[in-house]
């Protein structure tokens, strides 16, 4: 096949593998909206867009191996599914597949890909993930052939409706995820059905569909929205710049060597839609780089790695990571690939999901405190171990709780990606609302410690209402014997334009107070 300008031509890919990749890409592009709709029932509605974004990257790359296909997929897709599907393709490469006629060999390869997904993501069979269709399909292929594999995948995909989600964003829905099928499992069944149905589109036809460099079927409208927002942020703040060819915001002086001795640098990131988190906190005394993903989708490991390499001064990179599957996976992969020294602070402060049989606490408002305090310590010249220890201690001590408003109702315990909380109830106001925010937190933080209080809007609440609620929050905390030493009120960690509030309490001492008061200069925080 002939190549196109800017694209790598296909070079010697075996016919069966070539066909399988075209099948994968065609299904991802054709069913993007359907998969997003399935994912929106209990997740964040982006599985289809993530799958299509990765597939479009494979089409443009015209890879010469499954390994290069997997790397291209993961680098472009982002999110947990991008990292997991990319890892599966890379693992398949090690089996030397030449065609799809050897059922035993293909079955062994698929089982190994399934193992790669399990190793990286930690999902067990029955956790309501794509593994619940991939593993039985691979086993059926070995024992009964292609027809049996397709039937097993489809049956298993339907059966995920009876499972409780225990991985990814859907896990926060708990028992409410029962009744909805897993989009990843459905995608496995769709790909296998298409694999046996007939000849997929040619690379040229697929490339015409995705366009250069992006097409609507690959979710380019959403990508363009985020890219234009990043462009606007950088254009309005000369202290920032975007890395060429990478969606990453860094300090304009990154790598300039103008600050004297090398210091620890901070890198964070996450899905777009939480602004000003994270890119709005890039600047002196806080972050050195931030990587925005697509809306509510973690950045890819390639983004994170490029940002870290761009700002690394040789004293170490501190990654600040919120406890979401995609963030943890992609930042972890970037840390493994980084040539220099790095450490990670994991933020998991949301008490709403701290239940024994749940997925664990999410990372929310405490991220701002970690980035500010660790950034101030790094600016003082502290070493990587000290910055990591402080940041993790702050993350471990802090607790957050969110409430969303939906008309005259409110929903307690919501996440910052639209994850559902408790059943809705009549909306509270004044002291009753302040108690709803404070009461879940008071037993979770040191009763003797002074407090930093962060009250963030979720993107759709007037500052007037935030300030009024903050006054009520202070009254509740004071009545409970707590002392507020520092506070911040406004849109800090948002969920697009969701009406609601997120309260974060951080135990402080003299050292933390001094670091909070240290100079900072970012688009969203300056003193």
Automatic annotation (TrEMBL):
GO MF annotation: an example: glycerone kinase activity
GO cellular component, one term: cytosol
Classification of source organism: Bacteria, Bacillati, Actinomycetota, Actinomycetes, Propionibacteriales
All copies of domain DhaK, residue ranges: 221-525
InterPro entries: DhaK_dom, DhaL_dom, DhaL_dom_sf, Dihydroxyacetone_Kinase
DhaL domain residues: 15-197
GO biological process, one term: glycerol catabolic process
Organism of provenance: Microlunatus sagamiharensis
Entry keyword set: ATP-binding, Kinase, Nucleotide-binding, Transferase
Ligase keyword on record: no
Protein's UniProt name: Dihydroxyacetone kinase
PANTHER family in the record: TRIOKINASE/FMN CYCLASE, TRIOKINASE_FMN CYCLASE
């Amino acid at each position: 096949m002939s190549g196109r300008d800017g694209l790598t031509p296909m070079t010697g890919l075996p016919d069966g593998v070539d066909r399988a990749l075209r099948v994968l890409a065609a299904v991802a592009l054709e069913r993007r909206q359907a998969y997003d709709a399935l994912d929106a029932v209990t997740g964040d509605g982006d599985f289809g867009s993530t799958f299509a974004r990765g597939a479009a990257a494979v089409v443009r790359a015209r890879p010469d191996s499954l390994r290069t296909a997997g790397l291209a997929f993961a680098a472009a897709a982002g999110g947990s599914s991008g990292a997991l599907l990319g890892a599966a393709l890379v693992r398949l490469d090690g089996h030397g597949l030449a065609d799809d006629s050897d059922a035993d060999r293909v079955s062994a390869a698929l089982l190994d890909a399934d193992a790669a997904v399990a190793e990286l993501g930690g999902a067990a069979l029955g956790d309501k993930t794509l593994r619940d269709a991939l593993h039985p399909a691979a086993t059926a292929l070995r024992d009964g052939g292609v027809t049996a594999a397709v039937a097993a995948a489809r049956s298993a995909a339907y059966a995920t409706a009876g499972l409780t989600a225990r991985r990814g964003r859907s896990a926060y829905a708990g028992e409410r995820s029962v009744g909805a099928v897993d989009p990843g499992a459905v995608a496995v069944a769709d790909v296998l059905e298409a694999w046996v149905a007939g000849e997929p589109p040619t690379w040229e036809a697929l490339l015409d569909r995705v366009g250069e460099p992006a097409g609507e079927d690959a979710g380019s409208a959403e990508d363009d929205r985020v890219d234009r927002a990043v462009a606007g942020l950088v254009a309005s703040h000369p202290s920032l710049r975007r890395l060429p060819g990478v969606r990453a915001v860094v300090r304009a002086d990154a790598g300039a060597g103008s600050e004297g001795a090398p210091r620890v640098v901070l890198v964070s990131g996450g899905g777009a839609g939480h602004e000003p988190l994270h890119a709005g906190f890039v600047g002196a005394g806080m972050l050195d780089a931030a990587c925005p993903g697509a809306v509510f989708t973690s950045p890819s490991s390639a983004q994170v790695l490029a940002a870290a390499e761009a700002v690394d001064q040789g004293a170490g990179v501190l990654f600040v990571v919120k406890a979401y599957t995609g963030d943890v996976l992609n930042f972890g992969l970037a840390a493994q690939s980084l040539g220099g020294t790095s450490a990670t602070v994991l933020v998991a402060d949301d008490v709403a999901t701290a239940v024994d049989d749940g997925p664990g606490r999410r990372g929310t408002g405490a991220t701002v405190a970690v980035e500010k305090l660790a950034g101030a310590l790094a600016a003082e010249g502290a070493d990587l171990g000290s910055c990591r220890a402080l940041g993790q201690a702050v993350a471990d001590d802090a607790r957050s709780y969110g409430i969303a408003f939906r008309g005259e109702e409110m929903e307690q315990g919501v996440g910052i990606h639209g994850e559902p909380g408790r059943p809705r109830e009549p909306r509270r106001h004044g002291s009753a609302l302040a108690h709803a925010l404070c009461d879940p937190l008071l037993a979770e933080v040191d009763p003797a410690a002074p407090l930093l209080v962060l009250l963030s809007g979720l993107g759709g609440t007037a500052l007037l209402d935030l300030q009024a609620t903050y006054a009520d929050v202070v009254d509740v905390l004071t009545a409970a014997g707590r002392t507020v030493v520092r506070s911040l009120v406004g849109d800090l960690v948002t969920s697009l334009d969701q009406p609601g509030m997120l309260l974060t309490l951080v135990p402080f001492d003299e050292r933390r107070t001094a670091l909070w008061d240290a100079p900072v200069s970012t688009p969203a925080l300056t003193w």
